[in-house]
Fold:
Amino acid sequence: MISKQERQSVKEETLRYLKEAGIALTPQEAESLEIADFGLGRIREIGLQLVVYVNTDRYCAKELVLLPGQTCPEHYHPPVNGTPGKEETFRCRRGTVYLYVPGEPAEQPKAVIPEGYGEYLNVWHEILLRPGEQYTILPGTPHWFQAGSEGAIVSEFSSTSTDENDIFTDPRIVRIPVDPS
Structure:
């Protein structure tokens, strides 16, 4: 778990990234910004910040914000309640994102593996996303991603999001954050 001070620092940095990118948030959206450290306490290496605009029983729209070099751990979206699982399209808005999915492994991956974390990363086909580029991830597809050195903002458009059902390669992951207060 990260400290309240670190959580606040990451929140302020994330809101600044969004503002600099011209992405306006309502006060309620800014307040509800999720800081996901996945229970590992390494937020600046392994984590993700999210703003959920809408999440209904039919569709979802979010902004994903990654700090420089920050990694969202490998996971997939399994079938849930009779659906095939979440299908999502990532559209890069700012920065560079290295997205890894099954397929021919990159000879020289651009991502920097967080120290001691390589055993939890199994897919190495590299998709490079720059502003305006997008990629669709089908249900059940293992994937992980990392921001380049300048951080990144990714708009996610998907079927219903049930993050609590995501399955992570790292068994230590706690997906739903615990309130540090």
Observations:
- The domain at 4-168 is CATH 2.60.120.10 (Jelly Rolls).
- The first strand starts at residue 34 and ends at 36.
- Helices lie at 4-20, 27-31.
